[in-house]
Write a structure and sequence with these properties.
The chain has one domain. Helices cover 77% and strands 0% of the residues. The model has no long low-confidence stretch (mean pLDDT 83). By secondary structure, the protein is mainly alpha-helical. The radius of gyration is 13 Å and the shape is elongated. It contains 2 helices and no strands.
């Protein structure tokens, strides 16, 4: 069984955790938190589509 090493999922999860922590811990702009959520979702979706190939 060959395991597929997907680099996108850990990076996307890192951005997602960063956005959640920054949303709770600091009072930064909603725009910044929204951009971090968007980046994390985009990276995770790219990882899913690259994993299919």
């Amino acid at each position: 069984m060959k395991l597929n090493k997907n680099k996108y999922v850990p990076i996307g999860m890192l951005f997602l955790v960063l956005a959640i922590i920054l949303n709770k811990a600091s009072n930064i702009s909603d725009l910044v938190v929204g951009v971090l959520y968007g980046i994390s979702l985009a990276i995770l979706i790219i990882g899913i589509f690259n994993n299919r190939k």
